[in-house]
Structure formats: structure tokens, C-alpha cells
Amino acid sequence: MSALLLCLMALASSVSRGLISVIDRFQMGVKKQDITIVNFKNNFYTFGLATLLAIIFLKQDVWSMLLDYKIMLYALLVQAVAIGYSYLFKSLTVAESVVASKFSDLLIPIALFASSGSFSASSYVISILTTVIVFTLMITKYDRNIWSGIAIITPLLVSQSVLSPILTSGYSVTTDRLLAFTYCTIVFRLLIVLLMLLTKKTSLRGLKSQNTESSLKEGLIYLTRTILTLVAQIGFTFATSGHSSLAWILLNITSLYGVVFSSFILKEKLNTKAIVALVLVSGLTVIKAYFG
């Protein structure tokens, strides 16, 4: 898969996750809903839609793949990052979340080199430039919460970037196998969150009572979130099937898209510097991917 195609898949995943982050802020930030419950409902509905699509379109047999420990570990990493981002958005502002997640771009190329021997000096320059742009334009004051956020999300993102190509190896041969891999990931993500839910008695009690929105509005929110989650997961699986640090740059600017989307959807004040950072980071990445 070419570097440009990897970046396009990463872009689709990143934009979808940016919209999901707006929904996250609404559900957990504005409405103060429980992180585990929201993740469980989202994974449950995504599983339902993915199963329907798999029955209709998927030709690859998935039963043997459901016993593959590599897919289980991959799903665990994906869900861990998702939970990490949920806590990030709960305790930090959008701009601070951008900085926290963007810091990992300084370490991911080095980590990929250590694990695969693949390294591009020009790509690492892009990593440094985009990180400096975000650190310079997004916020000016760094407190303990920001450094705590960096400490939480950076190890998760670096681990994910190193292990994802290894765990998807053997499945990236054909598109159908990658789609089957994605479906199995969704299945395991649901099981992981279900286990989390069962270990939290407070969450179990709140599963039925936590319904602050009307049934129609809540249904529309979860329908939108389900579709976005499916697009994000497919794009993410394809993007991380190759050793592309450029793809990881696009994957890690989700919060920048969230800033733009939240200004329109949640009517939050749009930070001009965030738009500049988004344009510069996306532009540098796409130019590098196109011209090599």
C-alpha cells in the first residue's frame, strides 16, 4: 500500500475521530455521562452494524481469526487508546489535548525505527516541525495537568504505533483480510468494554438510569457515533498496516479537527491559531506524502 493511500486512510480515520471527540465532549464533558457506559453502548452498536455489513459483504472466514491472540492484543491497544482519549477530554481542554497527543510524534518515528528498522529523515523533520507548530500555536502555559496528560497518552500511542504493523502482519495481504481483521477488532473491543462494565458496579447501576437525552436524540447521537466509529476503525486498521510515520502524524491530529468541528456543532469559540495549526500540519504532511 502506497504512502499516499496510507495517509488518505489515516485522514479518513482522523476526521471521523475528530467528530467523535466532539460527541465525546458533549456526552462526557457537557452531559457528564460515564466513560465506560458510553464506550460500551458505542461498541455494542458498532458491533451490530459491523456484523450486518460483514454478513452481506465479507467473504473472509473470521472464526479462526477470533482465536488469534494478535488481534486480541491489537483490540486491547485500540480500546486502551480510546479510553485514554476519553479521560484526556474529560480533564483537559481541546487545545491541551492536542498538545498531549502531539508530543508522541517526536517518539513514534524513533520507536518505529527501533522495531522495524524503517526510518525516514525527512518524515522525522515533518514530525518535529508539526509538533513545534502545535506546541507554539495551541497554548502558551503548561501546567501539571498537561504533563499528566502527556504521560498518560504518549506511552499508549507509541506502543500502538510500534505494535500495530507487527500485529497486522499477515492480514495486510488483501483488502478482505484487513476488513475481517477490523471486524474481529470490533468484536474484541466490545468484549473488553463489557468486562470493564461488569467490574464497575456503579456503571452497571447507571446503565439504565443514565439517559439524560430523549430516546430519539440519543438514538441519533449513537447512530452517528456508530457510523463514525466504523469508518474510523477501518481507516485506522488500513493506515497502521504499514510502517508509515506520516500516517501516524495524521492520526494524531484528531483533536485539531475536533477544534474546528466543535466550533460549528457545539458553537464553541473557534481559536484562529488552531485553524492555522491544522492547515500547516495537514499541508506539510500531504505535501510530503505526495512528493515523497
Strand and helix order = HHHHHHHHHHHHH
How much helicity do the residues have?
Answer: over 70%
What integer value in Å does the Rg equal?
Answer: 18 Å
Count of beta strands: 0
How many structural domains?
1
Number of contiguous helices? 13
End-to-end gap: 14 Å
Return residue spans where pLDDT drops below 50 for at least 5 consecutive residues. none
Structural class: mainly alpha
Strand content of the residues, in percent?
under 5%
Described by strand count, sense and barrel closure, the largest sheet is:
none
Shape: globular
Mean pLDDT over all positions = 82
Keywords: Membrane, Transmembrane, Transmembrane helix
Protein name: EamA domain-containing protein
Transmembrane segments: 42-59, 71-88, 108-139, 146-166, 178-198, 219-239, 245-266, 273-291
What does this structure look like?
With 292 residues, the protein is an all-alpha fold. The chain has one domain (3-291). It has 13 helices and no strands. The chain has helices spanning 3-30, 35-57, 69-91, 94-102, 108-116, 121-137, 144-168, 175-198, 201-209, 215-239, 245-251, 254-265, 272-291.
Give me a quick take on this structure:
The protein has helices at 3-30, 35-57, 69-91, 94-102, 108-116, 121-137, 144-168, 175-198, 201-209, 215-239, 245-251, 254-265, 272-291. It is mostly helical and 292 residues long. It has one domain.
